[in-house]
Protein backbone atom coordinates (compact mmCIF):
# COMPACT_ATOMS: atom_id res chain seq x y z
CA UNK A 1 0.00 0.00 0.00
CA UNK A 2 1.36 3.36 -0.95
CA UNK A 3 2.35 5.53 1.96
CA UNK A 4 0.41 8.77 2.42
CA UNK A 5 3.43 10.67 3.73
CA UNK A 6 5.20 12.78 1.13
CA UNK A 7 8.39 14.76 1.12
CA UNK A 8 8.41 18.28 -0.26
CA UNK A 9 10.16 17.03 -3.38
CA UNK A 10 7.04 14.91 -4.14
CA UNK A 11 4.77 17.93 -4.45
CA UNK A 12 3.61 18.40 -8.03
CA UNK A 13 5.52 21.09 -9.79
CA UNK A 14 7.85 21.44 -6.83
CA UNK A 15 11.39 20.22 -7.44
CA UNK A 16 13.58 19.49 -4.47
CA UNK A 17 15.20 22.64 -3.17
CA UNK A 18 17.18 23.82 -0.20
CA UNK A 19 15.63 27.26 -0.19
CA UNK A 20 12.51 28.50 1.56
CA UNK A 21 10.73 28.86 -1.76
CA UNK A 22 11.15 26.48 -4.62
CA UNK A 23 10.40 29.18 -7.15
CA UNK A 24 13.53 31.21 -6.43
CA UNK A 25 17.20 30.62 -5.60
CA UNK A 26 18.28 30.34 -2.04
CA UNK A 27 17.96 33.60 -0.19
CA UNK A 28 20.79 35.18 1.71
CA UNK A 29 19.43 36.20 5.09
CA UNK A 30 20.71 39.69 5.73
CA UNK A 31 17.75 41.39 7.37
CA UNK A 32 18.27 43.30 10.61
CA UNK A 33 15.04 42.01 12.07
CA UNK A 34 12.90 38.95 11.53
CA UNK A 35 9.25 39.77 10.82
CA UNK A 36 6.74 37.66 12.70
CA UNK A 37 3.26 36.96 11.49
CA UNK A 38 0.36 38.36 13.48
CA UNK A 39 -1.03 35.64 15.73
CA UNK A 40 -3.96 37.62 17.08
CA UNK A 41 -6.48 35.38 15.31
CA UNK A 42 -4.82 32.00 14.95
CA UNK A 43 -1.48 30.25 14.77
CA UNK A 44 0.11 27.18 13.36
CA UNK A 45 -0.77 25.33 16.54
CA UNK A 46 -4.45 25.60 15.66
CA UNK A 47 -4.01 24.55 12.05
CA UNK A 48 -2.45 21.14 12.49
CA UNK A 49 -5.70 19.41 11.55
CA UNK A 50 -4.41 19.40 7.97
CA UNK A 51 -2.32 16.35 8.79
CA UNK A 52 -5.58 14.37 8.69
CA UNK A 53 -6.58 15.53 5.21
CA UNK A 54 -7.67 12.61 3.05
CA UNK A 55 -6.45 13.92 -0.26
CA UNK A 56 -3.89 12.48 -2.59
CA UNK A 57 -1.47 14.59 -4.63
CA UNK A 58 -1.49 12.04 -7.42
CA UNK A 59 -5.29 12.15 -7.68
CA UNK A 60 -5.57 15.89 -7.23
CA UNK A 61 -3.56 16.71 -10.33
CA UNK A 62 -4.65 13.94 -12.69
CA UNK A 63 -5.91 15.13 -16.01
CA UNK A 64 -9.64 15.58 -15.91
CA UNK A 65 -12.12 15.44 -18.76
CA UNK A 66 -13.75 18.55 -17.31
CA UNK A 67 -12.35 21.88 -18.57
CA UNK A 68 -10.11 23.63 -16.04
CA UNK A 69 -10.92 27.08 -14.77
CA UNK A 70 -8.35 29.83 -15.43
CA UNK A 71 -7.16 29.73 -11.80
CA UNK A 72 -6.33 26.03 -12.12
CA UNK A 73 -4.29 26.65 -15.25
CA UNK A 74 -1.88 28.96 -13.42
CA UNK A 75 1.63 27.49 -13.09
CA UNK A 76 2.73 26.45 -9.57
CA UNK A 77 5.38 29.14 -9.24
CA UNK A 78 2.80 31.86 -9.91
CA UNK A 79 0.37 30.44 -7.37
CA UNK A 80 3.14 30.32 -4.77
CA UNK A 81 4.07 33.93 -5.53
CA UNK A 82 0.44 34.97 -5.00
CA UNK A 83 0.09 33.04 -1.75
CA UNK A 84 3.34 34.53 -0.44
CA UNK A 85 1.67 37.96 -0.41
CA UNK A 86 -0.72 36.78 2.30
CA UNK A 87 0.63 37.75 5.72
CA UNK A 88 -2.09 36.21 7.89
CA UNK A 89 -2.14 32.48 8.76
CA UNK A 90 -5.93 32.69 8.62
CA UNK A 91 -5.82 33.67 4.95
CA UNK A 92 -3.36 30.90 4.13
CA UNK A 93 -5.56 28.38 5.91
CA UNK A 94 -8.51 29.54 3.82
CA UNK A 95 -6.47 28.99 0.67
CA UNK A 96 -5.66 25.45 1.74
CA UNK A 97 -9.38 24.70 2.02
CA UNK A 98 -10.18 25.89 -1.50
CA UNK A 99 -8.72 23.00 -3.46
CA UNK A 100 -6.29 20.13 -3.15
CA UNK A 101 -3.84 21.82 -5.50
CA UNK A 102 -3.95 25.04 -3.45
CA UNK A 103 -3.30 23.06 -0.27
CA UNK A 104 -0.05 21.70 -1.70
CA UNK A 105 1.19 25.11 -2.76
CA UNK A 106 0.26 27.04 0.40
CA UNK A 107 1.15 24.58 3.16
CA UNK A 108 4.85 25.41 3.09
CA UNK A 109 4.14 29.14 3.40
CA UNK A 110 1.96 28.43 6.41
CA UNK A 111 4.51 26.24 8.13
CA UNK A 112 7.81 27.88 7.23
CA UNK A 113 7.82 30.20 10.27
CA UNK A 114 5.35 29.07 12.95
CA UNK A 115 4.52 31.49 15.75
CA UNK A 116 3.83 30.56 19.37
CA UNK A 117 2.32 32.97 21.87
CA UNK A 118 1.32 30.08 24.15
CA UNK A 119 3.01 26.80 25.00
CA UNK A 120 -0.08 24.76 24.13
CA UNK A 121 0.25 25.89 20.51
CA UNK A 122 3.84 24.70 20.50
CA UNK A 123 2.64 21.36 21.86
CA UNK A 124 0.09 21.14 19.02
CA UNK A 125 2.86 21.69 16.49
CA UNK A 126 5.03 19.03 18.13
CA UNK A 127 2.14 16.56 17.89
CA UNK A 128 1.99 17.17 14.15
CA UNK A 129 5.75 16.71 13.84
CA UNK A 130 5.61 13.37 15.62
CA UNK A 131 2.53 12.04 13.81
CA UNK A 132 3.03 8.97 11.65
CA UNK A 133 -0.13 9.70 9.67
CA UNK A 134 0.71 13.23 8.54
CA UNK A 135 -0.09 13.91 4.92
CA UNK A 136 2.63 16.56 4.60
CA UNK A 137 6.22 16.25 5.79
CA UNK A 138 5.87 19.01 8.36
CA UNK A 139 9.39 18.77 9.89
CA UNK A 140 10.88 19.59 6.49
CA UNK A 141 8.61 22.62 5.99
CA UNK A 142 9.82 24.64 8.96
CA UNK A 143 12.52 27.18 8.10
CA UNK A 144 12.43 29.67 10.94
CA UNK A 145 11.62 28.93 14.56
CA UNK A 146 11.37 31.43 17.41
CA UNK A 147 10.67 30.14 20.93
CA UNK A 148 11.36 33.40 22.73
CA UNK A 149 7.71 33.95 23.67
CA UNK A 150 7.45 30.61 25.48
CA UNK A 151 11.02 30.61 26.81
CA UNK A 152 10.04 29.94 30.42
CA UNK A 153 8.35 26.66 29.43
CA UNK A 154 11.09 25.32 27.14
CA UNK A 155 13.46 22.63 28.43
CA UNK A 156 15.49 19.76 27.02
CA UNK A 157 12.47 17.48 26.80
CA UNK A 158 10.25 19.91 24.94
CA UNK A 159 13.03 20.73 22.47
CA UNK A 160 13.92 17.13 21.60
CA UNK A 161 11.13 16.68 18.95
CA UNK A 162 12.75 19.47 16.91
CA UNK A 163 15.55 17.07 16.01
CA UNK A 164 13.21 15.89 13.25
CA UNK A 165 13.49 19.28 11.54
CA UNK A 166 16.30 19.21 9.00
CA UNK A 167 15.86 22.40 6.99
CA UNK A 168 16.01 25.14 9.63
CA UNK A 169 17.56 28.42 8.50
CA UNK A 170 16.90 30.53 11.59
CA UNK A 171 16.64 29.34 15.17
CA UNK A 172 15.92 31.72 18.06
CA UNK A 173 16.08 30.36 21.61
CA UNK A 174 16.51 33.63 23.50
CA UNK A 175 16.03 33.30 27.29
CA UNK A 176 15.33 29.55 27.13
CA UNK A 177 17.46 29.19 30.24
CA UNK A 178 16.35 25.61 30.93
CA UNK A 179 18.21 24.25 27.91
CA UNK A 180 21.52 22.41 27.95
CA UNK A 181 23.88 21.19 25.23
CA UNK A 182 22.21 17.79 24.83
CA UNK A 183 19.20 18.46 22.54
CA UNK A 184 20.78 21.55 21.00
CA UNK A 185 23.72 19.56 19.62
CA UNK A 186 21.36 17.11 17.91
CA UNK A 187 19.34 19.91 16.34
CA UNK A 188 22.46 21.67 15.07
CA UNK A 189 23.86 18.43 13.65
CA UNK A 190 20.63 17.86 11.72
CA UNK A 191 20.48 21.39 10.26
CA UNK A 192 23.57 22.36 8.28
CA UNK A 193 21.61 25.11 6.49
CA UNK A 194 21.31 27.31 9.58
CA UNK A 195 22.17 30.91 8.77
CA UNK A 196 21.07 32.71 11.95
CA UNK A 197 21.35 31.30 15.48
CA UNK A 198 20.30 33.16 18.63
CA UNK A 199 21.26 31.49 21.93
CA UNK A 200 21.36 34.63 24.06
CA UNK A 201 21.06 34.18 27.83
CA UNK A 202 21.52 30.40 27.70
CA UNK A 203 23.97 30.14 30.57
CA UNK A 204 24.08 26.32 30.47
CA UNK A 205 25.38 26.22 26.91
CA UNK A 206 29.08 25.37 26.62
CA UNK A 207 31.78 24.88 24.01
CA UNK A 208 30.23 21.52 23.08
CA UNK A 209 27.37 23.15 21.18
CA UNK A 210 29.64 25.73 19.58
CA UNK A 211 31.98 23.03 18.29
CA UNK A 212 29.00 21.43 16.53
CA UNK A 213 28.27 24.80 14.91
CA UNK A 214 31.91 25.04 13.88
CA UNK A 215 31.80 21.61 12.21
CA UNK A 216 28.31 21.65 10.75
CA UNK A 217 27.07 25.18 9.91
CA UNK A 218 29.18 26.65 7.10
CA UNK A 219 26.45 29.06 5.99
CA UNK A 220 26.20 30.84 9.34
CA UNK A 221 25.71 34.60 8.95
CA UNK A 222 24.46 35.68 12.37
CA UNK A 223 25.34 34.34 15.83
CA UNK A 224 24.11 35.72 19.16
CA UNK A 225 25.79 34.29 22.26
CA UNK A 226 25.04 37.15 24.65
CA UNK A 227 25.19 35.88 28.22
CA UNK A 228 26.57 32.44 27.29
CA UNK A 229 29.29 32.59 29.92
CA UNK A 230 30.33 28.98 29.40
CA UNK A 231 31.62 29.66 25.87
CA UNK A 232 35.39 30.14 25.58
CA UNK A 233 38.19 30.54 23.04
CA UNK A 234 38.29 26.75 22.67
CA UNK A 235 35.16 26.76 20.49
CA UNK A 236 35.12 30.29 19.09
CA UNK A 237 38.52 30.01 17.42
CA UNK A 238 37.54 26.85 15.44
CA UNK A 239 34.15 28.43 14.73
CA UNK A 240 35.80 31.47 13.12
CA UNK A 241 37.57 29.32 10.53
CA UNK A 242 35.85 28.97 7.16
CA UNK A 243 33.15 31.44 8.22
CA UNK A 244 33.59 33.90 5.40
CA UNK A 245 29.82 34.55 5.37
CA UNK A 246 29.61 35.49 9.07
CA UNK A 247 28.32 39.06 9.35
CA UNK A 248 26.89 39.58 12.83
CA UNK A 249 28.36 38.34 16.08
CA UNK A 250 27.27 39.16 19.62
CA UNK A 251 29.47 37.98 22.47
CA UNK A 252 28.11 40.18 25.24
CA UNK A 253 29.23 39.06 28.70
CA UNK A 254 31.16 36.08 27.34
CA UNK A 255 33.82 37.06 29.82
CA UNK A 256 36.06 34.04 29.25
CA UNK A 257 37.08 35.02 25.74
CA UNK A 258 40.46 36.66 25.20
CA UNK A 259 42.45 38.39 22.47
CA UNK A 260 42.90 35.02 20.77
CA UNK A 261 39.25 34.96 19.68
CA UNK A 262 39.35 38.58 18.51
CA UNK A 263 42.46 37.95 16.40
CA UNK A 264 40.94 34.79 14.88
CA UNK A 265 37.79 36.68 13.90
CA UNK A 266 39.83 39.47 12.34
CA UNK A 267 41.83 36.98 10.29
CA UNK A 268 39.10 34.54 9.22
CA UNK A 269 35.83 36.53 8.97
CA UNK A 270 36.40 39.39 6.49
CA UNK A 271 32.67 40.03 5.94
CA UNK A 272 31.87 40.89 9.55
CA UNK A 273 29.60 43.92 9.81
CA UNK A 274 28.65 43.98 13.49
CA UNK A 275 30.51 42.79 16.58
CA UNK A 276 29.57 43.22 20.23
CA UNK A 277 32.15 42.57 22.97
CA UNK A 278 30.14 44.16 25.79
CA UNK A 279 31.77 43.26 29.15
CA UNK A 280 34.45 41.06 27.62
CA UNK A 281 36.94 42.19 30.22
CA UNK A 282 40.01 40.33 28.91
CA UNK A 283 40.18 42.09 25.54
CA UNK A 284 43.16 44.45 25.16
CA UNK A 285 44.41 47.19 22.84
CA UNK A 286 46.38 45.05 20.37
CA UNK A 287 43.46 42.84 19.37
CA UNK A 288 41.12 45.81 18.83
CA UNK A 289 43.72 47.53 16.65
CA UNK A 290 44.11 44.35 14.61
CA UNK A 291 40.33 43.92 14.32
CA UNK A 292 39.74 47.44 13.00
CA UNK A 293 42.69 47.25 10.63
CA UNK A 294 41.48 44.04 8.99
CA UNK A 295 37.69 44.38 8.82
CA UNK A 296 37.12 47.04 6.18
CA UNK A 297 33.33 46.47 6.05
CA UNK A 298 32.75 46.80 9.80
CA UNK A 299 29.70 48.99 10.53
CA UNK A 300 29.18 48.50 14.25
CA UNK A 301 31.71 47.86 17.03
CA UNK A 302 30.64 47.72 20.66
CA UNK A 303 33.34 47.62 23.33
CA UNK A 304 31.34 48.78 26.35
CA UNK A 305 32.95 48.00 29.72
CA UNK A 306 36.11 46.57 28.14
CA UNK A 307 38.06 48.26 30.89
CA UNK A 308 41.55 47.27 29.69
CA UNK A 309 41.24 49.38 26.55
CA UNK A 310 43.18 52.62 26.33
CA UNK A 311 44.13 55.20 23.71
CA UNK A 312 46.66 52.75 22.26
CA UNK A 313 43.87 50.69 20.69
CA UNK A 314 43.16 53.59 18.31
CA UNK A 315 46.37 55.59 18.11
CA UNK A 316 48.14 52.69 16.36
CA UNK A 317 45.59 52.43 13.56
CA UNK A 318 47.05 53.00 10.07
CA UNK A 319 47.28 56.72 9.47
CA UNK A 320 46.47 56.51 5.78
CA UNK A 321 43.39 54.33 6.16
CA UNK A 322 39.83 55.57 6.66
CA UNK A 323 37.07 53.35 8.02
CA UNK A 324 34.28 54.70 5.86
CA UNK A 325 31.82 51.94 6.78
CA UNK A 326 31.96 52.37 10.57
CA UNK A 327 28.69 53.90 11.79
CA UNK A 328 28.39 52.87 15.46
CA UNK A 329 31.14 52.84 18.10
CA UNK A 330 30.38 52.11 21.75
CA UNK A 331 33.11 52.79 24.32
CA UNK A 332 30.92 53.02 27.42
CA UNK A 333 32.98 53.04 30.63
CA UNK A 334 36.30 52.55 28.88
CA UNK A 335 37.81 54.70 31.57
CA UNK A 336 41.33 54.93 30.09
CA UNK A 337 40.13 56.60 26.89
CA UNK A 338 41.13 60.27 26.58
CA UNK A 339 40.78 63.15 24.13
CA UNK A 340 43.64 61.78 22.01
CA UNK A 341 41.76 58.58 21.20
CA UNK A 342 38.59 60.49 20.31
CA UNK A 343 40.52 62.74 17.96
CA UNK A 344 42.03 59.70 16.18
CA UNK A 345 38.65 57.95 15.99
CA UNK A 346 37.01 60.92 14.31
CA UNK A 347 39.86 61.25 11.80
CA UNK A 348 39.77 57.59 10.78
CA UNK A 349 35.96 57.08 10.95
CA UNK A 350 34.54 60.31 9.51
CA UNK A 351 31.06 58.90 8.91
CA UNK A 352 30.18 57.84 12.45
CA UNK A 353 26.50 58.27 13.23
CA UNK A 354 26.32 56.93 16.75
CA UNK A 355 29.20 57.62 19.16
CA UNK A 356 28.88 56.41 22.75
CA UNK A 357 31.43 57.77 25.22
CA UNK A 358 29.34 57.53 28.38
CA UNK A 359 31.40 57.21 31.57
CA UNK A 360 34.65 58.03 29.75
CA UNK A 361 35.43 60.44 32.53
CA UNK A 362 38.70 61.74 31.07
CA UNK A 363 36.87 63.30 28.11
CA UNK A 364 37.06 67.10 27.99
CA UNK A 365 35.97 69.92 25.71
CA UNK A 366 38.85 69.08 23.37
CA UNK A 367 37.27 65.71 22.56
CA UNK A 368 33.92 67.37 21.84
CA UNK A 369 35.65 69.82 19.53
CA UNK A 370 37.08 66.83 17.64
CA UNK A 371 33.61 65.30 17.43
CA UNK A 372 32.32 68.44 15.71
CA UNK A 373 34.25 67.35 12.58
CA UNK A 374 31.65 64.63 12.09
CA UNK A 375 29.25 67.40 11.13
CA UNK A 376 25.92 66.31 9.67
CA UNK A 377 26.86 62.62 9.84
CA UNK A 378 26.41 62.56 13.63
CA UNK A 379 22.92 61.55 14.78
CA UNK A 380 23.37 60.15 18.31
CA UNK A 381 25.91 61.24 20.91
CA UNK A 382 26.23 59.84 24.43
CA UNK A 383 28.39 61.84 26.83
CA UNK A 384 26.79 60.89 30.14
CA UNK A 385 29.09 61.20 33.19
CA UNK A 386 31.70 63.13 31.17
CA UNK A 387 31.71 65.71 33.92
CA UNK A 388 34.59 67.81 32.51
CA UNK A 389 32.50 69.05 29.57
CA UNK A 390 31.37 72.68 29.71
CA UNK A 391 28.87 74.95 27.97
CA UNK A 392 31.47 76.08 25.46
CA UNK A 393 31.82 72.55 24.02
CA UNK A 394 28.05 72.16 23.67
CA UNK A 395 27.84 75.45 21.81
CA UNK A 396 30.49 74.36 19.29
CA UNK A 397 28.78 70.99 18.86
CA UNK A 398 25.41 72.54 18.02
CA UNK A 399 26.92 74.88 15.44
CA UNK A 400 28.34 72.05 13.31
CA UNK A 401 26.42 68.83 14.11
CA UNK A 402 22.98 70.08 13.15
CA UNK A 403 21.35 66.67 12.58
CA UNK A 404 21.70 65.33 16.11
CA UNK A 405 18.58 63.37 17.06
CA UNK A 406 19.60 62.13 20.49
CA UNK A 407 22.07 63.54 22.97
CA UNK A 408 22.78 62.29 26.48
CA UNK A 409 24.49 64.71 28.87
CA UNK A 410 23.53 63.05 32.14
CA UNK A 411 25.72 63.96 35.13
CA UNK A 412 27.61 66.63 33.16
CA UNK A 413 27.62 68.80 36.27
CA UNK A 414 29.26 71.86 34.70
CA UNK A 415 26.49 72.45 32.19
CA UNK A 416 24.05 75.28 32.77
CA UNK A 417 20.95 76.71 31.13
CA UNK A 418 23.23 78.11 28.42
CA UNK A 419 23.82 74.61 27.03
CA UNK A 420 20.12 73.79 26.89
CA UNK A 421 19.42 77.08 25.09
CA UNK A 422 21.92 76.02 22.45
CA UNK A 423 20.44 72.51 22.16
CA UNK A 424 17.09 74.14 21.42
CA UNK A 425 18.55 75.15 18.05
CA UNK A 426 18.80 71.53 16.88
CA UNK A 427 15.88 71.05 14.47
CA UNK A 428 15.84 67.22 14.56
CA UNK A 429 16.37 66.66 18.29
CA UNK A 430 14.03 63.87 19.44
CA UNK A 431 15.57 62.71 22.72
CA UNK A 432 17.59 64.54 25.34
CA UNK A 433 19.10 63.30 28.60
CA UNK A 434 19.88 65.86 31.31
CA UNK A 435 19.72 63.60 34.38
CA UNK A 436 21.43 65.15 37.44
CA UNK A 437 22.35 68.34 35.59
CA UNK A 438 21.62 70.29 38.75
CA UNK A 439 22.22 73.73 37.24
CA UNK A 440 19.23 73.37 34.90
CA UNK A 441 16.25 75.62 35.71
CA UNK A 442 12.82 76.41 34.26
CA UNK A 443 14.46 78.98 32.01
CA UNK A 444 16.31 76.20 30.18
CA UNK A 445 13.14 74.15 29.75
CA UNK A 446 11.26 77.12 28.29
CA UNK A 447 14.14 77.82 25.93
CA UNK A 448 14.08 74.20 24.83
CA UNK A 449 10.42 74.15 23.82
CA UNK A 450 9.68 77.68 22.60
CA UNK A 451 11.41 78.08 19.26
CA UNK A 452 11.92 81.34 17.45
CA UNK A 453 10.44 80.18 14.13
CA UNK A 454 7.25 78.91 15.82
CA UNK A 455 8.00 75.37 14.61
CA UNK A 456 6.50 72.53 16.67
CA UNK A 457 8.77 71.03 19.31
CA UNK A 458 10.10 67.68 17.97
CA UNK A 459 11.04 66.24 21.38
CA UNK A 460 9.67 62.76 22.10
CA UNK A 461 11.66 61.62 25.15
CA UNK A 462 13.04 63.92 27.86
CA UNK A 463 15.04 62.76 30.88
CA UNK A 464 15.19 65.34 33.71
CA UNK A 465 15.55 63.14 36.79
CA UNK A 466 17.26 64.78 39.77
CA UNK A 467 17.22 68.26 38.19
CA UNK A 468 16.32 69.74 41.54
CA UNK A 469 15.54 73.32 40.43
CA UNK A 470 12.64 72.48 38.14
CA UNK A 471 9.11 73.53 39.03
CA UNK A 472 5.63 72.42 38.05
CA UNK A 473 5.26 75.52 35.87
CA UNK A 474 8.36 74.66 33.83
CA UNK A 475 7.27 71.06 33.28
CA UNK A 476 3.76 72.27 32.38
CA UNK A 477 5.26 74.36 29.59
CA UNK A 478 7.30 71.36 28.41
CA UNK A 479 4.40 68.94 28.04
CA UNK A 480 2.10 71.56 26.49
CA UNK A 481 4.54 72.67 23.80
CA UNK A 482 5.86 69.16 23.09
CA UNK A 483 2.79 67.41 21.74
CA UNK A 484 4.91 64.49 20.50
CA UNK A 485 6.24 63.77 23.99
CA UNK A 486 5.84 60.09 24.94
CA UNK A 487 8.32 59.78 27.82
CA UNK A 488 9.19 62.16 30.65
CA UNK A 489 11.37 61.13 33.60
CA UNK A 490 11.23 63.32 36.72
CA UNK A 491 12.55 60.88 39.31
CA UNK A 492 13.91 62.76 42.32
CA UNK A 493 12.45 66.12 41.23
CA UNK A 494 11.05 67.47 44.48
CA UNK A 495 8.16 69.31 42.85
CA UNK A 496 6.71 66.00 41.61
CA UNK A 497 7.70 62.88 43.51
CA UNK A 498 5.72 61.92 46.62
CA UNK A 499 2.84 64.09 45.42
CA UNK A 500 -0.03 61.80 44.60
CA UNK A 501 -1.83 64.35 42.44
CA UNK A 502 1.04 63.90 39.94
CA UNK A 503 2.38 60.43 40.64
CA UNK A 504 -1.04 58.89 40.00
CA UNK A 505 -0.18 59.21 36.31
CA UNK A 506 3.28 57.60 36.65
CA UNK A 507 4.07 54.11 35.48
CA UNK A 508 4.98 51.49 38.09
CA UNK A 509 8.64 51.29 39.17
CA UNK A 510 10.68 48.25 38.07
CA UNK A 511 10.38 45.22 40.34
CA UNK A 512 14.09 45.21 41.13
CA UNK A 513 13.97 48.70 42.70
CA UNK A 514 14.40 48.90 46.47
CA UNK A 515 12.14 50.87 48.79
CA UNK A 516 14.12 54.11 48.57
CA UNK A 517 14.25 53.98 44.77
CA UNK A 518 10.52 53.37 44.61
CA UNK A 519 9.86 56.34 46.86
CA UNK A 520 11.42 58.84 44.45
CA UNK A 521 10.46 57.10 41.19
CA UNK A 522 8.51 59.41 38.88
CA UNK A 523 8.35 58.49 35.18
CA UNK A 524 5.51 59.30 32.79
CA UNK A 525 5.11 57.22 29.63
CA UNK A 526 2.54 57.02 26.85
CA UNK A 527 -0.92 57.80 28.16
CA UNK A 528 0.59 58.96 31.46
CA UNK A 529 2.05 62.01 29.71
CA UNK A 530 -1.33 62.87 28.18
CA UNK A 531 -3.08 62.46 31.52
CA UNK A 532 -0.56 64.68 33.28
CA UNK A 533 -0.96 67.32 30.55
CA UNK A 534 -4.73 67.25 30.90
CA UNK A 535 -4.56 67.46 34.70
CA UNK A 536 -2.17 70.44 34.73
CA UNK A 537 -4.27 72.25 32.14
CA UNK A 538 -7.36 71.76 34.28
CA UNK A 539 -5.53 73.06 37.34
CA UNK A 540 -4.41 76.11 35.39
CA UNK A 541 -8.01 76.91 34.42
CA UNK A 542 -9.04 76.75 38.06
CA UNK A 543 -6.24 79.10 39.13
CA UNK A 544 -6.18 81.10 35.90
CA UNK A 545 -6.05 84.68 37.24
CA UNK A 546 -2.98 84.09 39.43
CA UNK A 547 -1.17 81.84 36.98
CA UNK A 548 -1.79 84.14 34.01
CA UNK A 549 -0.25 87.11 35.80
CA UNK A 550 2.78 85.07 36.87
CA UNK A 551 3.32 83.74 33.36
CA UNK A 552 3.19 87.17 31.78
CA UNK A 553 5.75 88.57 34.21
CA UNK A 554 8.11 85.66 33.54
CA UNK A 555 7.63 86.04 29.77
CA UNK A 556 8.65 89.69 29.88
CA UNK A 557 11.90 88.77 31.57
CA UNK A 558 12.85 85.74 29.47
CA UNK A 559 11.62 86.33 25.95
CA UNK A 560 12.97 89.06 23.73
CA UNK A 561 11.81 89.50 20.16
CA UNK A 562 15.33 90.43 19.06
CA UNK A 563 16.90 87.16 20.22
CA UNK A 564 14.76 84.88 18.01
CA UNK A 565 12.76 83.55 20.95
CA UNK A 566 15.38 81.44 22.72
CA UNK A 567 16.43 83.90 25.41
CA UNK A 568 20.11 84.11 24.42
CA UNK A 569 20.70 87.69 25.67
CA UNK A 570 19.53 86.57 29.08
CA UNK A 571 22.39 84.05 29.11
CA UNK A 572 24.90 86.88 29.41
CA UNK A 573 23.42 87.86 32.73
CA UNK A 574 24.13 84.37 34.01
CA UNK A 575 27.88 84.94 33.87
CA UNK A 576 29.39 86.15 37.09
CA UNK A 577 31.72 88.76 35.63
CA UNK A 578 30.04 89.40 32.26
CA UNK A 579 32.91 87.78 30.36
CA UNK A 580 33.00 84.65 28.25
CA UNK A 581 35.46 82.89 30.52
CA UNK A 582 32.79 81.18 32.64
CA UNK A 583 31.75 79.09 29.65
CA UNK A 584 35.04 77.24 29.66
The largest sheet, given as strand count, sense and whether it forms a barrel, is:
15 strands, mixed
Number of helices: 23
What's the overall average pLDDT, rounded? 83
Shape: globular
Low-confidence stretches: 1-62, 554-584
Question: Within the largest sheet, what's the order of strands?
Answer: 1-2-3-4-5-6-7-8-9-10-11-12-13-14-15
Structural class: alpha/beta
What is the strand content? 5-15%
Helix content: 25-40%
The end-to-end distance, rounded to whole angstroms, is: 90 Å
Q: Tally of extended strands? A: 15
Supply Rg.
30 Å
Give a description of the structure:
The protein is an alpha/beta fold and 584 residues long. The chain has helices at residues 57-60, 76-83, 89-96, 100-111, 119-130, 156-159, 181-190, 207-216, 233-240, 259-268, 285-294, 312-315, 339-348, 365-371, 391-400, 417-423, 442-449, 472-481, 500-503, 515-520, 527-542, 544-558, 568-572, and strands at 144-146, 170-172, 196-198, 222-224, 248-250, 274-276, 300-302, 328-330, 354-356, 380-382, 406-408, 431-433, 461-463, 487-489, 523-525. The protein has 23 helices and 15 strands. A 15-stranded mixed sheet has the order 1-2-3-4-5-6-7-8-9-10-11-12-13-14-15. The model is unreliable at 1-62 and 554-584 (pLDDT under 50).
Q: What's a quick, concise take on this entry?
A:
This protein has 584 residues and is of the alpha/beta class. The protein has helices spanning 57-60, 76-83, 89-96, 100-111, 119-130, 156-159, 181-190, 207-216, 233-240, 259-268, 285-294, 312-315, 339-348, 365-371, 391-400, 417-423, 442-449, 472-481, 500-503, 515-520, 527-542, 544-558, 568-572, and strands spanning 144-146, 170-172, 196-198, 222-224, 248-250, 274-276, 300-302, 328-330, 354-356, 380-382, 406-408, 431-433, 461-463, 487-489, 523-525.
Amino acid sequence: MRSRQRSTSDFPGRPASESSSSSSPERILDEDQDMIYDDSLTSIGELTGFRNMTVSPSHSLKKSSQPLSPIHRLPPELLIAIFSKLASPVDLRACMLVAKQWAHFSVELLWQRPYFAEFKKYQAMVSALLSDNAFFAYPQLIRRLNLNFIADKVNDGSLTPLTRCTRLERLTLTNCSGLTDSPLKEILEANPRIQALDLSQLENITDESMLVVADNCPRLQGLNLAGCKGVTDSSLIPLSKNRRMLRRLKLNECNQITDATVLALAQNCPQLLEIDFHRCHQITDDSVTHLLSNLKHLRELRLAYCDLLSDEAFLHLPGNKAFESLRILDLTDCGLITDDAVDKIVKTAPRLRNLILAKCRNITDRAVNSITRLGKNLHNLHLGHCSLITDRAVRELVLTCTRIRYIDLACCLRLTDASVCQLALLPKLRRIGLVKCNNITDFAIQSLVRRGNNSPCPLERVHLSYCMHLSVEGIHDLINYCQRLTHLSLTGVEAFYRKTEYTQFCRSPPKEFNENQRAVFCVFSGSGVKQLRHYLNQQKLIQRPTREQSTNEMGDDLWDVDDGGIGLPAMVGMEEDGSDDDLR
